[in-house]
Amino acid sequence: MLRLDSLGQRYGDHSVLHDITLTVPDGQLLCVVGPSGCGKSTLLRTVAGLLPVREGTVSVDGAPVTGVPDRLAVVFQDYGRSLYPWLPVRENVALPLRRRGLGRPERRDEAERMLERVGLRGAGRRYPWQLSGGMQQRVAIARALVCRPSLLLMDEPFGSLDAQTREDLEDLLLEVHRGEGTTIVFVTHDIDESVYVGDRVVVLSAGPGSRVVLDLPVVLPGERDQIATRGLPEFVALRAKVGHAVRG
Amino acid sequence: MRRGGSGGGGAGRAAERVRRRQDPLLGALGVLLALGLCEAVGRAGLVRREYLPPASEVLARAVELAGDPLFLAGVGATVRAWALGLGLACAIAVPLGLLLGSVPVVDEAVRAVVEFLRPLPSVALIPLVSLLLGSGTETKVALITYASVWPILFNTVYGLGETDPLAKDTLRAFGFGRLSVLLRVELPATAPFIAAGVRISAAVALILAVATEILAGFGEGLGIFIAQAGLATDGTRDVLAGVVWAGVLGLAIDMVLVWGERRLFPWTPEHRGDNPRAAAAR
Fold first, then answer.
1. How many angstroms separate the CA of residue A199 from the nearest CA in chain B?
2. A46, A76, A84: best mutation site toward chain B, by most B Cβ within 10 Å?
3. Across all residues in chain B, what is the average pLDDT?
4. Nearest CA distance, A173 vs chain B (angstrom)
5. What is the rounded distance in angstroms from the CA atom of residue B100 to the CA atom of residue B152?
6. Distance between CA atoms of residues A153 and A155, nearest Å
7. Which PANTHER family does the entry mention (chain A) (predicted)?
């Protein structure tokens, strides 16, 4: 369980986040939406332990976050910058396993299995820069999932992909989430995406000093489907609510 | 490409490829023109033949030297000193650069010393070092090392500073510590910069090797050959033939290093364009 308690963040005098209190139960897929520059990424980096907590507390499973929490994984928007071009795809995916004390063959097998899971069977020997953007982000997702994280943070992961690829990856994410039951915090500026992907949507106000202005459970009938779900009246109503909250 | 993710610059890359394909041709043309000019000046009697022999004579002599075991032993000695000095420079500059680039406190403490030493012309140190170490291989290697350290050192520090913070954060977020980030992300990301530094240093090292030999005046080496030819009557042809050898040596070293960079770092933006595997993916 992830808990943020009166979390505040500032860069010098500039307040970025103000009094954020949130509880994310295990297995939830939480979407954080907000206008650009509202501190969504700062929130994510704070939870990841990459930024020190200024005010309030962040805790994972009851333990306050002081450094990078155990069993955490992150997927950033810029796959081109966060995948390592000097490593083949398989080595990129296997990299987090080095901290698990696994031998080389086990790491390789795990990486191959994860690549198959994200639909990249047989791409292990290629290099990230030889793949399309969508495939590269699949690699990043495989790498994030390879050590079975209990908390997965995603910072606008599909923001730089074309619409078709983006929908494919949204569905991949939903499928993985159903299968693994990982707690996921998914940051996006895309209102549609947040409602489609999330179990719950939290909207942050425009900065400075962003706060939570809407905390909305997403309940949609049936399995999510790119075309059918987006046409549901429930979906449209939720999207409108989130949209109003984002625009203030 | 490295920063964004979407394509772009395709036209630029294509132009680049065309330019590169033409390079050898243009280069050969340039060499031929220069040789022709030298030949003409030599033959036309504009200058005395002893001062500037025609290019054909110089080249013939250079080729002839390839069969001279004594001369080749000298070239071997120069290349050995070059390799040893450059190797030592790498062994010193890369770890030092990693230290300076990743520990700001050390960087600030050492900066003043570095900024004092760096502008000293290495060639000006030849008499001093000869006095201390004699005029043998030690002097040569010491001077080569000294001069070659700087480009590698500065490129290492610069490359570290250029490492993408997101690449580092990614590894940190997987729970890796600082040393892991240095070795697994910063070092490989900096490697192309280090290699470029080594290539600059390789040329500097050759200059130092030959210059030290010329100034020292005895022992063995390509520089010794040039220096002694310079003392002989009618030695200009030999001097120039020796210079041709030095030039060819430098060119060969550079070509090998460029080839090595392309093989080792196919992911860098300047190499992706001519990499068939990368082109296929686009």
1. 24
2. A84
3. 85
4. 19
5. 13
6. 7
7. ALIPHATIC SULFONATES IMPORT ATP-BINDING PROTEIN SSUB, TAURINE IMPORT ATP-BINDING PROTEIN-RELATED
CATH superfamily of B54-281: MetI-like (1.10.3720.10)
Q: Where are the alpha helices (DSSP H) in A36-162?
A: 40-47, 79-82, 89-94, 104-117, 133-145
**Whether A80 and B2 lie within 8 Å, measured CB to CB:** yes
The residue among B174, B261, B267 with the most chain A CBs within 10 A of its CB, best to mutate, is B174
On chain A, the residues whose CB falls within 8 A of the CB of B164 are: 81
Establish if B191 touches chain A: CB-CB under 8 angstroms.
yes
Distance CA A66, CA B268 (A): 36
Q: What's the complex ipTM? A: 0.89
Query: Who contacts B235 (Cβ-Cβ below 8 Å, separation ≥6)?
Result: B228, B229
CB within 8 Å: A50 and B173: yes
CB count within 10 Å of CB B255 equals 10
Q: Do A82 and B1 touch (CB under 8 A)?
A: no
pTM listed for this prediction: 0.84
Q: Tell me which residues of chain A have a C-beta less than 8 Å from any C-beta of chain B.
A: 45, 48-50, 68, 70, 72-74, 76, 78-82, 84-86, 95-96, 99, 126-127, 129-133, 136, 147, 153, 160
Residues A176 and A60 in one domain: yes
Distance CA A74, CA A45 (A): 9
Q: Is A78 inside any structural domain? A: no
* Domain-wise residue ranges, chain B: 54-281
Tell if the CB–CB gap between A95 and B184 is shorter than 8 Å. yes
Number of domains in chain A: 2
Does residue A56 sit in the same domain as residue A165?
Answer: yes
Pairing of strands A63-64, A55-60: antiparallel
Contact A132 B281 (CB under 8 A): yes
- A/B interface, count of CB pairs below 8 Å: 84
Residues of B in contact with A73 (CB under 8 A): 173-174
- Which of A158, A126, A133 is CA-nearest to residue B4? A133
**Chain segment B44-93, per-residue pLDDT in tens:** 777 777 777 888 888 999 999 999 999 999 999 999 999 999 999 999 99
A155 in the same domain as A229: yes
- At B158, is the secondary structure helix, strand, or coil? helix
**A241, A156: one domain:** yes
Residue with tokens 């000095």: B85
